[in-house]
Amino acid sequence: MRIAFQSRRGGGLAIFLMNANGTELTRLTGRPDLAAFGPAWSPDGRKVAFNSFLRPDIFVINVDGTGLTNLTNHPASDRRPDWSPDGRKIAFTSDRDGNDEIYVMNADGTEPVRLTFSATADRVPAWSPDGKKIAFQSDRDGDLEIYVMNADGTDPSG
């Protein structure tokens, strides 16, 4: 089992990989212009999606360090990626429509779709194991609570 985590080891915020027992520490991201954080494994274990602190986009990289790709490349702040269980979609938080909302895009970054429509912030999406639901954090009722909606954005409830 491998673990992906963020650290400032060796200067700059970066994503690292290591075995669960602490061996084979590897720096996955090395570009100082990214300041990478918030890693999320793809279900097949071949890729890691992450945020950039300095450039508020979502990136993906192969676990061997190749294939760095900016998935969102949008002027808004896109963050908190979470892969669908089948690896075909990535849910994320974005403020591209004025406040934080939940979006879903294809795993290659195409076809982003806004799922939530709240006057307050909806953040931190997390897929259910069967891929049918997405949980998220929201303060739409005045308190920060966990909500669950269908994966297409319908029927949000807290």
Q: What's the helical proportion of residues?
A: under 10%
Strand percent estimate: 35-45%
- Spatial extent as radius of gyration: 16 Å
Structural class, by secondary structure, is mainly beta
Number of helices: 0
Write down how many β-strands occur, each being a DSSP E stretch of 2 or more residues: 14
Q: Mind describing the biggest β-sheet? A: 4 strands, antiparallel
* Oligomeric grouping of the chains: single chain
Overall pLDDT level: 95
Give the strand line-up of the largest sheet: 4-5-6-7
Low-confidence stretches: none
Span from first to last CA?
34 Å
Which terms summarize this structure?
mainly beta, about 160 residues
Please characterize this protein's 3D structure:
With 158 residues, the protein is mainly β. The chain has no helices and 14 strands. The protein has a domain at 71-158. Helix content is 0%, strand content 45%. The relative contact order is 0.11. The mean pLDDT is 95.
Task: Describe this structure in a few short sentences.
The chain is mainly beta and 158 residues long. The chain has strands at 2-7, 14-19, 26-27, 36-41, 47-52, 58-62, 69-70, 78-83, 89-94, 101-106, 113-114, 122-127, 133-138, 145-150.
Summarize the helices and strands and which ones pair or pack.
Blueprint: E1 2-7, E2 14-19, E3 26-27, E4 36-41, E5 47-52, E6 58-62, E7 69-70, E8 78-83, E9 89-94, E10 101-106, E11 113-114, E12 122-127, E13 133-138, E14 145-150
Antiparallel strand pairs: 1-2, 2-3, 4-5, 5-6, 6-7, 8-9, 9-10, 10-11, 12-13, 13-14
